[in-house]
Design goal:
The chain is α/β, with parallel strands linked by helices and 248 residues long. The protein is built from 11 helices and 7 strands. It has a single domain, classed as 3-Layer(aba) Sandwich (Rossmann fold).
Length: 248
C-alpha cells in the first residue's frame, strides 16, 4: 500500500519569506518552556502590560471585538461556560461579560498575575453593578489547570504567538474544550503590519496555512474565518481571526 503523504503547506511568497527572516521577532521560539514562561511573565508584569489596554484601544481591536460579538458574528448565546485565555487587561473579557447571560460561567486565565490584577481593576465598574464574574486564575496556556472537556467555548486572543511551539498550547485548548465546543482564536499574521506588531510586542507571526495545519494536527478544525470589518479583510489588517471546532 502506498503511504499517504502529509499535506504540503502553501509557502509564503519569496519576498515575504525574506522579510520574515530579516524582521520577525524569534526570541521566544528558541527558549525552553520554563524560560519562556519567565520571560513573558516579566514582560507583561512590567510597562508593556500596563500599555496593553491603551494599545488595544488605539489599534481598535477592543471595540472591534465588541462590535463583532454584538452583531453575533460569533454568537455567545450558545455557551454556558467560557474560558478566556490570556485575559490581559480584559480587552476581550469585558465583552464576554457584557454579551452573555449572568448565569454563564466565565473564567479569566493569564500567565501574568499582574495582568490579572489589571483585568480585575478594569472590571471593577461591572462588579459595582452586581457582576460577580469572572473567576481569575493565573496559569500557563501549555498547562491549564482544568479537567478535560470543561468548557463550551474558549477565547484566545493574541497569545499563541508567544509560545516557542504552538502545538502544546493548541493541544491544551482542545483538551479543555467539550466535544463540539468552539474556539475563538486570534493571532498575529505574517503581514507587514503583523511583523511590526511582532517587533513591538516581541512575538512571532503566523501564516494562515501553517496555523490551520497546526490546528488540524491538534483536532481543532477551522469552521470559518472571521474579519473585524470589510476594510480589515481587504487590507489584511487585524491578524488571523477564526472559529475552530472540536469534533463531537
Amino acid at each position: 500500500m502506498t503511504p499517504i503523504e502529509p499535506p504540503r503547506l502553501k509557502r509564503p511568497a519569496l519576498h515575504k519569506r525574506a522579510f520574515r527572516r530579516l524582521f520577525e521577532f524569534r526570541g521566544f521560539q528558541r527558549l525552553p518552556l520554563q524560560q519562556y514562561r519567565s520571560k513573558v511573565r516579566r514582560l507583561y508584569d512590567g510597562p508593556a502590560g500596563a500599555m496593553l489596554m491603551i494599545a488595544s484601544l488605539v489599534s481598535l481591536h477592543q471595540p472591534l471585538i465588541g462590535r463583532m460579538l454584538r452583531k453575533q458574528n460569533f454568537d455567545l448565546g450558545r455557551f454556558k461556560s467560557i474560558l478566556d485565555v490570556g485575559s490581559g487587561a480584559g480587552q476581550i473579557l469585558g465583552h464576554l461579560l457584557k454579551h452573555t447571560h449572568p448565569e454563564v460561567q466565565i473564567v479569566a486565565c493569564d500567565l501574568s498575575p499582574q495582568m490579572l490584577r489589571r483585568a480585575r481593576q478594569s472590571m471593577k465598574s461591572r462588579q459595582a453593578h452586581g457582576e460577580t464574574r469572572p473567576w481569575y486564575i493565573a496559569a500557563d496556556l501549555t498547562h491549564l489547570p482544568f479537567a478535560d472537556n470543561s468548557f463550551d467555548c474558549v477565547t484566545c486572543g493574541y497569545v499563541l504567538e508567544y509560545l516557542p511551539d504552538p502545538l502544546p498550547g493548541l493541544a491544551e485548548l482542545h483538551r479543555v474544550l467539550k466535544p463540539g465546543g468552539s474556539l475563538l482564536l486570534a493571532a498575529t499574521e505574517d503581514t507587514y503590519t503583523g511583523f511590526l506588531n511582532g517587533r513591538m510586542w516581541r512575538c512571532r507571526t503566523f501564516n494562515r496555512d501553517e496555523l490551520k495545519h497546526a490546528c488540524d494536527q491538534t483536532g481543532l478544525a477551522w469552521n470559518r474565518q472571521l474579519w473585524f470589518s470589510r476594510v480589515h479583510r481587504f487590507l489584511k489588517l487585524g491578524g488571523i481571526l477564526v472559529e475552530a471546532k472540536k469534533a463531537e
